[in-house]
Amino acid sequence: MSFNIQKIRNDFPILSRKVNGYPLVYLDNAATLQKPQLVIDAIVDYYSNYNANIHRGVHTLSQEATDAYEAARQKIQKHFNAKESHEILFTPGTTYGINLVAHVFTSELKKGDEIIVSAMEHHSNIVPWQMLCERTGAILKVIPMNEEGALIFSEYEKLLSEKTKLVFVNHISNALGTINPIAKIIEYAHKVNAAVLIDGAQSCSHIKPNFQELDVDFYVTSAHKMCGPTGIGILYMKEEWGNKLPPYQGGGEMIDQVTFEKTTYAGLPFKFEAGTPNICGGIAFGAAIDYLNNIGFDAIVAHEDELLEYATKKLLEIEGLRIYGTGPDKTSVVSFNIEGIHPYDIGTILDKLGVAVRTGHHCAQPIMDFYKIPGTVRASFAFYNTLEEVDILVEAVKKAKMMLS
Ligand SMILES: *Cc1c(COP(=O)(O)O)cnc(C)c1O
């Protein structure tokens, strides 16, 4: 299929709006992706035509909503090649999924056990493990990274031992764009019988991970970073873990029988899905996955790589500009600073010119501490961005530099 950028852009109503009198150039895709009309339509269709609570209703609307919600779960299962659809647990998003695992893993740990995380984690990936360590007496170990912004694999190997119970790494760093070698990370963790949880929030709009092939134990992601709505995501939990680990929250949906003496829990996935879920969100997530697959991940990555290469080259022509995250394996994120100028000031001027970028520590303060900087300007590209938009960004950065130095 040929990659028709103009046709793709027409699918996204927001891309034709203006900001501060300029056409919007949306380069904050690592924070959230924009939504195609097809996803917006799925949301409107659900609330207009078959909104109902699911799983227990005998009436038609409830059955239609249940069918659509469970069809979305199967679609997601197929997309990620999970063995069973009940290994796909719907959650409110990545952060929730990580907290769920960190909470239910309490029963697996004892004092002196070790959890390994990477040095380039999002805050949502650091705090839950610190809390788990406080509860259990386990110890948190950190895989260091190098100047290029890549993990040092030999240091990871040294950290692994029979004390390691869980390894936690993001698939792609949201602050640097680095793609981590998760297949190898999982393989080495399994050699010492440690479980692995991968944060795929940043990867799933660029890469189609294959859960069975990776043999990953847990994998989390958010729909809003895959063109779907906010407030919905998945936690993939390998069946053996799902059966073994205790429930997270108690409530409706997650029970089998309830009396005041004893409650028995429902099987997977409902054991981990207490309460009325985000039904519409799940259905719209399914629509977003269809949309991405229809364009094709190979075409998406080829286009994004072209944008990344061009933006890197053009930005580096600006004197005093430094890019953070320069390893060979990275996605379309350019995190940079200009010598002597605060990233926030650059971001503010770019916004005046219609260019949306992120500035700050990107929820990854340890990375900023590593480089001894307060933050960066981060331009992150999606498949709907164009080379012309890169030119607009570069001109805007030059203008900001002139005004601020
Ligand atoms: C966005 C992001 C998260 C948090 O996702 P939420 O949808 O806010 O829960 C976690 N990790 C990475 C790498 C991210 O990019």
- So, CATH architecture of the largest domain? 3-Layer(aba) Sandwich
| Parts with pLDDT < 50 across at least 5 consecutive residues | none
Adjacency order of strands in the biggest sheet: 4-10-9-8-7-5-6
Radius of gyration, Cα only, in angstroms?
22 Å
Which structural class fits the helix and strand makeup? alpha/beta
Classify the fold: give the CATH topology of the largest domain: Aspartate Aminotransferase, domain 2
| CATH class annotation of the largest domain | Alpha Beta
Q: What is the tally of beta strands?
A: 17
Family: Belongs to the class-V pyridoxal-phosphate-dependent aminotransferase family. Csd subfamily.
EC number: 2.8.1.7
Function: Catalyzes the removal of elemental sulfur and selenium atoms from L-cysteine, L-cystine, L-selenocysteine, and L-selenocystine to produce L-alanine.
Domain Aminotransferase class V: 25-393
Would you kindly provide a brief summary of this structure?
The protein is α/β, with parallel strands linked by helices.
